[in-house]
Specification:
This protein is mainly alpha-helical and about 100 residues long. The protein has a domain of about 60 residues. It has a two-stranded antiparallel ribbon with strand order 1-2. A hairpin with a 5-residue loop joins β1 and β2. The chain is globular. The model has no long low-confidence stretch (mean pLDDT about 85).
């Protein structure tokens, strides 16, 4: 009997166009989350390199925190991940939803 096995790619394309592998992702003990690192983790999940559960466990993130990173990338790309611009983008999308 054949078991269903998850087929994962060896690498995915990162946010800057470079190949990402499990080894090239930020270390599991990362505490300083710059835009590039957040975008790499989102790209890894979107490309199937890691699952959301694996990312949350590996980096000690809540599901809500990771989901906010995904939404930011979907809406505004990498600039949306900047903490200093968070309020600006939030207001922008709230205005768009009104109209």
């Amino acid at each position: 009997m054949i078991e269903n096995q998850k087929i994962r790619p060896a690498q995915v394309i990162g946010p800057l166009g470079e190949p990402l592998t499990i080894e090239s992702l930020p270390p599991a003990n990362t505490t300083r989350w710059v835009v590039r690192r957040k975008a790499e983790v989102v790209a890894a999940v979107n490309g199937g390199l890691l699952t959301i559960d694996e990312v949350c466990e590996r980096y000690q993130l809540t599901l809500e925190e990771f989901a906010s990173w995904q939404r930011a990338v979907d809406r505004s790309g990498m600039p949306g991940l900047r903490v200093t611009r968070l309020q600006h983008y939030r207001e922008k999308y709230e205005r768009q939803q009104k109209y």
